Amino acid sequence: MNQTYQKNDLVMVTIEDIGTDGEGIGKVEGFTLFVKDAVVGDVVEARITKAKKQYAYARMEKLLTVSPFRSEPKCPWHRQCGGCQIQALNYAKQLEYKQNKVRNHLIRIGGFEAELIDRIIEPIVGMEEPYRYRNKAQYPVGTDRDGHVVTGFYAGRTHTIIPSTECYLGAEENKEILEILIAHMEKYRIPAYDEETGKGQVRHVLIRKGFSTGEIMVCVVINGRYGEKEYISNQAKLLEKLAMINGMTSVSVSINTDKTNVIMGKEIHTLWGSSVIHDMIHVRDMRREGYPCTGQQLTFALSPLSFYQVNPIQTEKLYSLALEYAGLTGREVVWDLYCGIGTISLFLASGAGQVCGVELIPQAIEDARDNARSNGISNARFYVGKAEEVLPAFYAGKQDEISAPGAEFQGDLRHPDVIVVDPPRKGCDSACLSTMLQMRPERIVYVSCDSATLARDLRILCDGGYELRRVRAVDQFGHTVHVETVCLLSKRQIT
Ligand code: SAH
């Protein structure tokens, strides 16, 4: 009979697998343990934190045998922080884990044959340098027990700030910027915001860097302005110091007086420099590979509120794959659903006849139109709305009811050649999928940030007459359990 375990029991366990949240998984007499901070290949002594009938959650107490897959994490806070779940796992093993996660989801959730997946899945695209890849960081500002101002990050699943001015995933300049702000707040006795009471002034700091331009943006989120002339006490002194940082281009405040978890307030005031920074994404010259794209540098203007991919180097690889899978020849009519600020749309526009983007957030669509204009792209247009509403409206011939300023459109949007989707984690709405099936494009390119919902949606598309042709994962978020995947489906020929 299986022994049952209780909270606070100590058990010795060999870790055999990695769970969806990066935890180690091991078995003791058929009883499954999910062990936080344990790495596959470790033998650990673990303390049970929560016990159920068949399984229990536990925390590593003592590392008895060190796994060959461990590597020394750069960050001393990696165990407390909620950000990196698998920093103690070496990078090659992280990639293997993500590749397997996608494969297993397609087989278990999507119901695809293992033989098919193993034949078509391509090796995951890893990073050359899995640290310092994030172009954006948002640090909470708070007060420690001794009354000192601290910045840091929230401990996993809480709102307790672990004091730190460094995150090894972010830009090196972040540390100096945070130190300048902390020193300024200490010197002029500017209180940090207190989530409990709703009092205090400085809530968060957003730092963003255009990796290809070196331009840096700092936006301080404040709980209301300080006075008539200044947003922050002695702000000229703060600006003077920040301006000395190499690359500093824009310093602003965002006003957020709401008692909420939402970080940014909508009201932005530029205090120094420009209101935006720029970043560029390169569309590769693909003519030698048989595609019409001649190679182009796309420039994006980013404000503090703009949505933008956080890992631009991997994003370029991800979008290049999407473009390759789309198989464009210069004439196609393409939908880009869930288009954000139009990054994929503008990529596709270089090789398509006409691209139509659809996105829920109006501000993102304004950015998309600006980006098309500033990059001289005239064959892309954008619609505000839900993909599951805009697409059926088009299919039903009611497109006149949807406003879309932009280039006059020649192609047949009811019968596109290619549909690209890049939905949020919950995947595509079923009304969106069924309209895609009715439109019957030659190819569907599915870009996904959650392989479980991807697998679910691919099953629906394949049952509706499509064939899964290519699958490739791209690691956008090293040291975390997240993985992006690109898939190509093509229309099954009716015989
Ligand atoms: N393709 C973009 C953005 C992908 S993120 C890029 O690569 O940058 C997913 C986007 O889908 C977000 O911008 C989100 O606002 C948008 N979105 C969420 N639900 C949607 C829906 N039902 N219809 C259209 N867009 C939606």
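^ S-adenosyl-L-homocysteine complex. The chain has a mean pLDDT of 93. Residues 80 and 180 are 25 Å apart (CA to CA).
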